[in-house]
Amino acid sequence: MTYPIIKTSLTSQSNYNLLSIASNSLTNLVSKNYLNTSNGLLKNSSSLIQNTPKSYFSIKTIHNDLNNTQELKVKPLGKIHHTILELTKINNNYNPNVHRVVPFVLNGVVLGVIPENVFIQLKKYNKTFSRRLRPFSISSHRVTFSEYIDSYEKRGRVMNDLLTSWRDANTFGCLKGWRDEVYPVFDGNHEIAFNIERSGIALFGFRAYGCHINGYVEDPETHKLKMWIAQRSFTKQTFPGKLDNIVAGGVSFPFNPTETAIKECYEEASIPLDISKQVVPSGAITYISVEKRGISTDSQYVFDLKLPTSFKPKPNDNEVEGFHLMEFDEIIKRLKKNEFKVNSGIVIIDFMIRHGILTHSMEENYLEILSNIHRPIPFPGPNFIKMKSKK
């Protein structure tokens, strides 16, 4: 795949330029609108984004009884009923016609997009260095590393120093969740270009990778499928109390998606290795989501794991309150009531489509749903085999 190269001829005279992310190209679409970083949506968007309530992330639970699935209730905030299509659009809400960003470029290839508020802070940080030692080369239409920042190690140090400075100065709230865990960023040759602290990757719109496991059981008599659903800890920094996949986690350096899936199975749900190693890679969902923390350009690797009917997952860390075995009629109802962490709900929608639970004869927006959960992303993707050499 050939990745787009940003040229100065594509830029306008404005201080900031709009990078249009389309199927496989970058177009010169200029907008007068500004990125709303408080809720990630623009009031004057002409798409569904316009009608999406600001508080579409529910963070509270009105019932704490986790022993009875029927009593499990998650209080939604704002709009309490969504169509399946609306759910996918909430998750995939980046609109190149309205969101103003500046591309981050390496060797002529765009690796990510920087929201306007981050771009302003990046310029301030860069000016704290003497001109000769500035780590970034910044113009109104692009950001790249300075020429002397020319290796994997140097680029990683520069990004770590930058985010550490912002964290210590409380510049961006997302850095309060510092993980000491790094994500890989890949270049136009699918080589790892540098690592970046996980909590700061959305500030630059770099591609991030996760894995989600659909843990399900099949009734031996009726062959009807049910799915184990987790409820996130009420103390988690992100989406506390929301419903979730049985297991999910970010793919951090130096692990690949399958290694991450197996590791997370034990850490989050006490699933032993003899079961977790049976995970079946089942594709990925891709989306670009504008959020308070920045722009999440995500590829979530999806795994299906058929569990024995006798197995019951148990929390093994402080990230999960409990697990509940649900029929899909109930899952769909809770999805539409906005009780799920958004991208986890999309993974379950993908599962239902692949297993014939949600079909084109049931859903008039079937094809549009598919396009919203498999959005083409025009940034370089990973080569996890080559990544091992950086370990």
The average pLDDT is 83
Sheet having the most strands? 7 strands, mixed
| Order of secondary-structure elements | EEEEHEEHEEHEEEEEEHHEEEHHHH
**CATH class term of the largest domain:** Alpha Beta
Structural class: alpha+beta
Which features characterize this protein?
alpha+beta, 17 strands, 9 helices, 2 domains, seven-stranded mixed beta sheet, Nucleoside Triphosphate Pyrophosphohydrolase, 391 residues
Task: Explain what this protein looks like in three dimensions.
There is one protein chain. Strands 11, 12, 13, 14, 15, 16 and 17 form a 7-stranded mixed beta sheet that branches. Strands 1-2 form a two-stranded antiparallel sheet. The longest helix has 17 residues, at 152-168. Helix content is 22%, strand content 25%. It has 2 domains: 8-28 and 95-206 and 380-390, Transcription Regulator spoIIAA; 60-93 and 207-373, Nucleoside Triphosphate Pyrophosphohydrolase (Alpha-Beta Complex), CATH 3.90.79.10. It has 9 helices and 17 strands. Helix 1 (84-91) crosses helix 7 and helix 1 (84-91) runs parallel beside helix 8. Strand 7 and strand 8 form a beta hairpin. The protein has helices at 84-91, 116-126, 152-168, 257-269, 273-276, 328-336, 342-354, 366-373, 384-387; strands at residues 20-21, 26-27, 60-61, 74-75, 101-106, 109-115, 136-138, 143-145, 182-186, 192-197, 207-218, 225-232, 243-245, 247-250, 280-291, 294-306, 320-327. By secondary structure, the protein is α+β, with helices and mostly antiparallel strands. Mean pLDDT is 83; it is low at 4-70. InterPro entries: DUF4743, NUDIX_hydrolase-like_dom_sf, NUDIX_hydrolase_dom. This is Nudix hydrolase domain-containing protein. GO terms for molecular function: 8-oxo-dGDP phosphatase activity.
